[in-house]
Amino acid sequence: MTATAKKPRRKPPLGIVTKPGSSLRNRTGPWGILRPEFDWGKCTGCNTCESICPEGCIRHLEKKQYEADTEYCKGCGMCAAACPFSAITMKEEHR
Amino acid sequence: MTTSAPGFTYEIARGFLPGHRACAGCGQAAAVRIVMEVAGPNVIVANATGCLEVFSTPHPESAWGVPWIHSLFENHPAVASGVEAALKVQGKINDVRVLCFGGDGATFDIGFGALSGMFERGHDVAYFCMDNEAYMNTGVQRSGSTPFAAATTTSPAGRRSFGEDRPKKDLPSIAAAHGIPYVATASMSFFADLRRKAKKALDTRGPKYVQVHVPCPPGWGYDEKNSVEIGRLAVECGLYPLVEWENGEVARARKIKPIPVEEYLKPQRRFRHLFRGEAGKAQIAQIQALADANIKKYGLTE
Amino acid sequence: MRKMIEGSRGVAEAVGLCRPGVISAYPITPQTHIVEELSQMVADGDIDAEYVRVESEHSAASVCLGAVAAGCRSYSATTSQGMMLMAEVLYNIAGMRLPMVITGVNRALSAPLNIWNDQQDTMAIRDSGWIQLYAENNQEVVDMHIQAFKISEDDRVLLPVMVCMDGFILTHTYETVDVPTQEQVDAFLPAYDPLYKLDPKEPYTLGAFAGPEMYEEVRYEIQRDALASKDVIGEVARDFQAAFGRWYGDVLDSYRCDDAETIYVAMGSVIGTMKDWCDMRREQGEKIGVLKLRCFRPFPQDELRAALAKARRVVVLEKAISVGAYGILAAEIRAALYGQAATPPVHCAVVGLGGRDITFDTLDEIESKTRAGEMDFFAGLRREMLEAG
User: Fold this and answer.
1) A20: burial class by Cβ within 10 Å (0-12, 13-18, 19+)?
2) Cβ contact, residue pair C209, B113, below 8 Å
3) So what's the pLDDT on residue A2?
4) How far is CA C48 from CA B138, C51, C141, C144, C280, in A?
5) Nearest 5 degrees, angle CA C69-CA C74-CA C77?
6) Which residues of B touch A78 (CB under 8 A)?
7) Residue C207: closest CA among chain A residues belongs to which residue?
8) Chains in touch with C (≥3 Cβ pairs < 8 A)
9) Which residue, B297, B189, B188, is CA-closest to B245?
10) In sequence order, what are the beta bridge partners of C203?
């Protein structure tokens, strides 16, 4: 049977299959009013903040240059509280 | 790959992506993220009903970048067994790992039979229990994992009650008693240790059980920013020992410099009732005894 | 190849011919011979499948769910209490639109505990979304399993199929059956080609939750496709006839109904007895016919209306009961005939519960009771036991 002879199949029924990573359309940034501010001078690159963020929205550009994606950051403050070097402060940000 | 904001990109292959609806400060979301980053894209996940399932998959949104299935509350070990059997038939079992996620309710209680069956049959499945010590998704009701004297909505503190009157079920020992190759307790707060244990579980063949302590701000009653600290205190006081079993025997345990259990209990609303009067002190002494028993049993200070 | 084998062995051979990848079952009388035969066939390499020996029926159905979701044709069998225990999973499988075949060996429901045949168990899950087909004899059992996989995996259906067969009466009796060859079945039933599956190459999420804004539409689609599956059932039956030469009707089959004044309706093995009784009555000059309902879900309303159009009286033999109401099949037939220009009385005789034999005497009793006007009753009731207490 050649590829051209194959019948086109139906789409999956409604609600049965959900696309991977489709949660990215849900910007959780507006959930909170606090945002982490990273003091790169105090940072040692221990990676604690990036590791424990529940959203996974912290990344580092260079070894000691961390930042949070405010599109998804819920402002929980875990990164600031967990940073062993007090290199992160939570600041209010109203949108 | 999907872009969310200028400069920030999220690889679907990361496994667990932002945009999920977990509470701010959720220990479970952090732990799952850590495990999935270790797991990589060549995995299939079977997930029980619970917080994780609900906050990660409100159709048409899914935070999962790997193939993922949710069926019911108590059958995920059996579903995982079926996935594993299918992979064997397809000749893919050496290339694709099967993971199972369930909360403590799904693991200790309603899914206990299916879990035991999966262990006993020797399926190549890595089971991760996300242990926040109550049925959190439905409103903080007690489970077999709820620690002694913790207040939940079905074991509340009251005029005639100090909260949960039973000790935490020792599920890791039960898992180890099945003789499965690898069992471990872990904590979201000790993320490097969790990464190591997740990797070990995923690299081992056969059934594996990793129980991850995941602090829950609304359920335990503490300020959401303190999840890492609360989880750390649980381990450091001896109430949540970090132990590994291999083929049914204790292989190693993380040493601690024990702190009094009060330091862990005091910041949490679920234990607040213990600090109100003299009677609470007796309960705290019992909790300290449980911690001391763990320290002795696993040699946490030797 | 024609052989004299136990009904259960026929099921195992038929299932084996369909090349399942994963088989998972929990033993319960009178399904046990099926799973034992399958185990031996796997142990001997006659079937190339993973056989998962689970710790409960709930897990048996769940293992099959996971295996199908991962792209493997899967099979299980159960009965009675096992059917009830896996009921939650059955609803889930249908709701997730996963194709699968389970043999529903018909057995009474506890309490009291009873291992013998009636149809209460499969009736209890009639709302689940499973297609339910009832077999009359062991040849039909063999052929129905082969058809079941094909119906289930059809893109227009994507619903699981339950092949219902009377426990002990069919599972444990020896009949001569013609078991098709592997070549014949391969030509009829191609390999399972999932529309979607769990695969790292295309990492879909299955089983997300649906809120009030969409749940109704999802269920509507299931209903729509379940009703439409009736056509596929007929199509597969005709294709089977063309390939194998055997025909059992599509959703129903009538016996001597063309000029019948009274039509007896039932499902399953009792049809065989009823046909013989019907011949006897015909010899006495009575215009009786037998209507075999082959497909209970989806419920073939239009076909029933047509089949019963000229009947003056309809008598339904019911091997189940909806406690507090009465017959289930009878109620659905009455509903199907509602609003027609001419509606014959539809009598309901609850019969054969817990394995009570249905004989010519039972049928004679039913015929006289219904002629006397009784509408809903238990046939063959032993009054002396009730009075004794």
Assistant:
1) buried
2) no
3) 45
4) 43, 9, 22, 21, 48
5) 130
6) 25, 30, 224-228
7) A16
8) A, B
9) B297
10) C198
Cβ atoms of C206 and A17 within 8 Å: the answer is yes
Interface of A with B in 50-79 (CB under 8 A): 51-57, 59, 69-72, 74-78
- Distance of alpha carbon C143 from alpha carbon C10, whole angstroms: 9
* Spatial CA neighbour of C119 closest among C270, C229, C6: C270
- Mark yes or no for CB contact A52/B227 under 8 Å: yes
* Calpha distance B258→B235 (Å, rounded): 9
Distance CA(B279)–CA(B289), nearest Å, equals: 16
Domain extents in chain B: 2-298
Taking contacts as CB-CB distances below 8 angstroms, the residues of chain A near B21 are 26, 28
Would you say B25 and B65 are in contact if contact means Cβ atoms under 8 Å apart?
Answer: no
* Residues in chain A within 8 Å Cβ distance of C195: 9-10, 12
Residues on chain B touching C74 (C-beta within 8 angstroms): 82, 86
Q: Which CATH fold topology does B2-298 show?
A: Rossmann fold (3.40.50)
- Would you give the end-to-end CA distance of chain B in angstroms? 48
Encoded tokens for C145 = 């399993």
Beta strands C252-255 and C295-297, pairing class? unpaired
Q: What is the pTM of this model?
A: 0.97
- Domains (range + CATH), chain C: 2-244 (3.40.50.970), 252-388 (3.40.50.920)
Among the partner-chain residues B70, B88, B121, the one whose CB lies closest to the CB of C207 is B70
What is the C-alpha separation between C266 and C293, in angstroms, rounded? 6
- The alpha-carbon gap from B87 to the nearest alpha carbon of chain C, in Å, equals 7
SS3 C386: helix
The low-confidence residues of chain A, meaning pLDDT below 50, are: 1-3
Question: Beta strand B97-103 with B68-70: parallel, antiparallel or unpaired?
Answer: unpaired
Chain B nearest-CA distance from A2, in A, is 24
| Residue range C68-126, pLDDT digits in tens | 999 999 999 999 999 999 999 999 999 999 999 999 999 999 999 999 999 999 999 99
DSSP bridge partners of C202: C199
Contact predicate C9/C38, CB 8 Å: no
Q: Does A33 touch chain B (CB under 8 A)?
A: no
Structural class in CATH, domain A44-89: alpha beta
Q: Which of B3-17, B35-49, B96-110, B189-203 has the lowest mean pLDDT?
A: B3-17
Amino acid in the structure at residue B57: T
Helix (H, G, I), strand (E, B) or coil at A92: strand
Provide DSSP, C102-161: EEEEE-PPSSSP--S--SHHHHHTTTSS-EEEE-SSHHHHHHHHHHHHHHHHSTTT---E
- ipTM of the complex in this document: 0.96
**Alpha helix positions (H), chain A:** 48-52, 78-82
